[in-house]
Fold this sequence. Notes:
By secondary structure, this protein is mostly beta strands. 10% of the residues lie in helices and 34% in strands. The chain has one helix at 90-100; strands at 4-6, 13-14, 20-24, 30-33, 41-45, 51-56, 63-67, 102-108.
Amino acid sequence: MQFLSYARHPQRERSRRHALIFRVTDREALVRYRFGLKLSDFLICARCGSYVGVYMDDPGGALGVLNLNVLKDRSRFSAPTSMDYEGESVTERLQRRRQRWTPARLEFA
């Protein structure tokens, strides 16, 4: 994906307590999609359709997760596990994300 680079820091996602930086080099190639609750932006490449990660503005600071399947060295990470968040309330979802997601920035070059 040429439009976006990201710093270290059923889809495989990973969050860490280090900064995650989504750096967009071509604004036209970035699609920001919001599902029903409209809590966060799924970052998708408009050229190839790859789901890169999720970015969420939050009063305590922006948060994000990276789709590990876009990494060349994705085999370094553990196998994915199935998750089901269907029954979560908005409050529960935000609380889980604040606890588990990585502090993030979305930068435009």
